[in-house]
Amino acid sequence: MFILVNLKAYPCDPIAVATAAKEVADESGVRIAVSPQAAHIERVAETGVETWAQHVSPNGYGSFTGSTLAEAVADAGAVGTLINHSENRRKLADIDASIQAAKNADLETCVCANNPRQTGAAAALGPDSVAVEPPELIGGDESVSSADPDIVENAVSAAAAVDESVDVYCGAGVSTGEDVVAAGELGAEGILLASGVAKADDPKEALEDLVSGL
Amino acid sequence: MFILVNLKAYPCDPIAVATAAKEVADESGVRIAVSPQAAHIERVAETGVETWAQHVSPNGYGSFTGSTLAEAVADAGAVGTLINHSENRRKLADIDASIQAAKNADLETCVCANNPRQTGAAAALGPDSVAVEPPELIGGDESVSSADPDIVENAVSAAAAVDESVDVYCGAGVSTGEDVVAAGELGAEGILLASGVAKADDPKEALEDLVSGL
Amino acid sequence: MFILVNLKAYPCDPIAVATAAKEVADESGVRIAVSPQAAHIERVAETGVETWAQHVSPNGYGSFTGSTLAEAVADAGAVGTLINHSENRRKLADIDASIQAAKNADLETCVCANNPRQTGAAAALGPDSVAVEPPELIGGDESVSSADPDIVENAVSAAAAVDESVDVYCGAGVSTGEDVVAAGELGAEGILLASGVAKADDPKEALEDLVSGL
Amino acid sequence: MFILVNLKAYPCDPIAVATAAKEVADESGVRIAVSPQAAHIERVAETGVETWAQHVSPNGYGSFTGSTLAEAVADAGAVGTLINHSENRRKLADIDASIQAAKNADLETCVCANNPRQTGAAAALGPDSVAVEPPELIGGDESVSSADPDIVENAVSAAAAVDESVDVYCGAGVSTGEDVVAAGELGAEGILLASGVAKADDPKEALEDLVSGL
User: Is the CB of residue C131 less than 8 Å away from at least one CB of chain B?
Assistant: First the structure.
């Protein structure tokens, strides 16, 4: 199970969360990554935690002012990237091109999707993983694995029907170790979460709870 | 074989093209449709030709000023719609929602895609058809079926691997009856074309040539 | 005072509203226009009511599939267009180009803006008018002229400081004749409204009330 | 005169350019800043050169995955930001909100514009400066100050008519000290340039030439 902590644009201390994530990953043996703002990637990566970008642009090197160049985030220390997060929806052609741009920079790719149909579509583009997150549950108190277990199972089926090598992650409302175990039982190979750790009084404690059932 | 004539924002007379298309469809028995500007749908549909919208928005009824409501284009006489044309690229989530919006209004759906990967992705969203059009060939002199036959065959395979019920159309550079026959031999069930008819001195003659080998 | 009834993507009968608007305009002498879906422009214009598009694209004739061509909506009967409605926000460069495209097609232009700063910015682009509509009041029960009178006065000042020839309209929550009079007293030369007429049981009665104080 | 070197997504060494810019600024007394990829801001700022972001998003802290948070780029060392570069055109409402977001993070703001009309519009939103860059000249061999001097003078007039406190910069094709002097004579208070320095064999030499006439 992979746990990816998305720091969004939260007013948290990215180094404090990264340090906690690195410690819990080392202590538990569970794979944990942190995805900060692009401007914080270098500082976060220096903690030793696995570091992901929140987005990369569909372009390679060139005249693309204001883009998030895959090679630049990789150079700063990122080893993976989210693409098409529900707060950052992208054109189909650009998701395709962003996956290719990320691969050229040796970044692992996770494309986000709203539902099982979009999960299948994203899987057809050849990313490493697809994360299904029903928008209505993001940031809420109830985990997708209990609120809408069918969506996770259907997303796993939809991805497998297109490309068996693409992992499915799930997100939205995940905040406890029980949620993580439940997601795994539905076929998810990873978890995306944000506020449950980034806004926790004690991020380390929150992460320890999340990995407790693994 | 289905022939869809996209009038884009060309300065052509939409009624003249529609009338020619209706006549050639009646005389040849080949299915031919015309896709005009939304503001011209009603007038084009009144000629009796099969009429398609160039786009529908991802919303149903509601507070969506400036949207292209599927129910409105259907009410004006459209029976199908393009979605995600290369000149009008859309977000993955919006393509998904536009397909659903079109289905709710009983419109047939054709999603456009740049390449075989995107063709598979589009097919996973459940449209009636996907049109593969390499952007670099659109508006050019060489037909996709001769310039890049692999892309058509690979798109047909990619769609079939995801959903066998989804037809594949091809476009970009198609202008002669030979191009149409070649596309059919590569597995395409339809042709998207634009300037070859819309900018022809005699649209009827151009259409007669296109269907001549069928 | 100009009253522009925006039908958005509402499930109303555009002909019924257009007919009512035409009658009230004729009976009262007040200028009233109706802005339907692009696919309904021709039918609405045939009632004789002044007809506006809800949007035009920043392009002229050409390869722009899915665009809303200014010349096409003008050809269907529109004489004006909204640009940059809060439900259809556009890039600064595209607002500029849409105004030019509309002028080329002899369409009157009204650019929408959220606040006085944006009203000044829109006025600098040379449209015929700017409509200030605080997004938080759109579709609500309280009129901008009573909920936030300063915003109307400040918008009028901001536009005048940039270009005195640009009229300011206001919208958001306007539903009664008193609201219209109040808006006029704050310096507005026109009113944008939608649900107050489009969703009224009796659109004619709603319009008669709106013009009653003029 | 202010010289802003935009590194876009070029495959240059941002530290080498930053170091050269710092040296030339110190030696000449001319204000020079460098605008790298967000992921490189911290490393560039550590050279001591004035560092700018290429873009900031229209949001403050919150659930905005993939955004470029003004507070994050400021925390990494940026003191200013471009907004609405021609390679990254933005909605009018978002330019307005990005300026406010940048101000909240104590970042200086420069909004880019295509022409004098858009320069006036941008000035109405209250940034510190507006940079006029005709898109057709960007990346070319001829300087805007010689190819189209009217556009610079008209942009200066348009901004002054709206808000005298807003400086006007110019860009597009500037590559020599003569171009810089010519731009200043037309009323520009700053220069945006990119390839002339970022792609130079010797960035320091290129910068020394640029400031040679000041």
Answer: no
